[in-house]
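anyone seen this seq b4? input:
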Amino acid sequence: MRRRVLIVGGAVVAAAGIAGAVVLRRSEDAIAAGSWDPAITPFDKVLGSANAPVTIVEYASFTCPHCATFHTDTWPTLKERFVDSGQVRFVFRDFPLNEPALRAGMMARCVPEDRYFSVVEVIFSTLDQWSNGDWRQGLGRIGRLAGLSQEAFDACLADKALEEQILGLRLAGQQLYDINSTPSFVINGKTFGGGRTIEQFADIIEDASGA
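predicted toks r here
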């Protein structure tokens, strides 16, 4: 697998996570066979029915204002209308654009599993607060509210294996779908860049489901 890099805290970090490698291999095999496989791995964060006719994979950076707008303005209705009803399976994948986004993604994965998506929404809804100034301290406060002690938070952000998993999925998104901005959405194999209204999502979902 080709290796790309992300500048993290002035250092060059190579992306080589196992999850990213699995996504690349399975998706490339499916594309070669003329189909699409989102190649969901145990590392992915998923909501909705596995039998849903439409799968949406979001690539997002936790420091992206447009991602925050999607999650605060559009996501609640999208989830209620399409995910909760069984029409859409939603997959969230980190696509960190800088170190604070990477560490935010790591912190979210260290909270109890059933609190993951709640923490994601808190990170996005309070973006202006935690990302201005000392972002590490801001993320630490969010982590403590979700049950992470300071010791657990520090260990989480220093976890190189977790870091590589996230960067590996970022790499896979670049190579498979040419993701280069956030938010980007892969909907049944087609890539849509930028935030969209709920009406636009509804039209895309309808087309993708063949309804």
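The chain has one domain: 5-209. Confidence is low (pLDDT under 50) at residues 1-5, 7-14. kinda curious what u guys think
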